[in-house]
Automatic annotation (TrEMBL):
Species this protein is from: Nothobranchius kadleci (African annual killifish)
Example of a GO MF term: zinc ion binding
Highest rank taxon of the organism: Eukaryota
Protein name, UniProt field: Zinc finger and BTB domain containing 14
InterPro entries: BTB/POZ_dom, SKP1/BTB/POZ_sf, ZnFinger_BTB_dom_contain
Amino acid sequence: MAETVKYVDDEHKSIFLKLLNEQRLEGEHCDIAVVVEDVKFRAHRCVLAACSNYFKKLFKKHEVDNSSVIEIDFIRSDIFEEVLNYMYTAKISVKKKDVNLMMSSGQILGIRFLDKLCSQKRDLSSEEKEKFPYDIVKMALPPEAQLAADSE
């Protein structure tokens, strides 16, 4: 039996995300538009469904054609923009005053990372919860986002 040789491209994940995000920002190959507070966000259904249980269920339940527009009325457009950026970059940036709103919006959308942060918050003592909205989220952010949060 012939021996199999396997190779792993450690950069593939980050390059893949980077290229998908570039396509999204340029409107290339986007097959869905999400409208939030009259702001239109172009995206790829496969990315939304892979990152969000809300969108996964929505796309399974309703047949969506390539020119589809979905309207969402339960989230602010600036918060959705950050959630969408997270889906394409694995990085999230949020103003201190909006951390709880970001986490609850992420939980509603079924974003695993943000849902995990909400679960961590539930397990904290009252004293820890007072610090939670900023300190815990900041610790969970990638280093670049931590630096950005510190500069605010």
